[in-house]
Amino acid sequence: MLRLTEIIVALYLTSILNVQDVLLKIGLPVLIMFLSAWIIIRRWVTTPGIASSGFSPAATSALFAPLLLIMYFFLLQSCTQEGVAAHAELVVLYGAIFAPTFVLLLPFGVTSLNRVRRQGKPLSHGLLCIAIAAWPILQVVWMCLLFGEWE
Questions:
Q1: With contact defined as beta carbons under 8 Å apart, do 123 and 112 qualify?
Q2: How many percent of the chain have pLDDT more than 90?
């Protein structure tokens, strides 16, 4: 009975019916993940021994929010999958669809946190903002190329 409930909830959360569904199922989780990452990174940066002058926890958490959203949907959809082959297929599918996230945002986020931890000069806000702005553009272009919209 519990397994059936998990599957029903996962199917509901991964389907989109209208504009309100998009806001509820995609917008709200991104906002929650962004705020939680911001709180965690800000708290980590304020610990003694870590130099954080010029560092923006908001910009760095914005780099990680889309990645956390992808993991959120992966966990939801993995509840509906049975067997190792289905899970591997889901990982490959998400890796292909969200390649710009893993290629662009994750290295910038990790580099930003690593430079602060090593007490070096943090990445410039301009560079972080460019990476955050380039991500949705690159993601849309990649999706259009991947699904054959531009031939």
A1: yes
A2: 0
Neighbouring CB atoms inside 10 A of 19's CB total 8
Whether 90 and 74 have beta carbons less than 8 Å apart is answered as yes
Q: Please give the model's pTM, rounded to 2 decimal places.
A: 0.59
145: amino acid identity, one letter:
L
Query: The tokens of 102 are what?
Result: 């893993």
Give the three-state DSSP class for 149. coil
Inter-CA distances, 4 with 52, 78, 99, 150, Å: 47, 13, 32, 40
Residue 109: closest CA among 99, 101, 119: 101
Distances (CA, A) of 122 to 35, 66, 95: 21, 21, 29
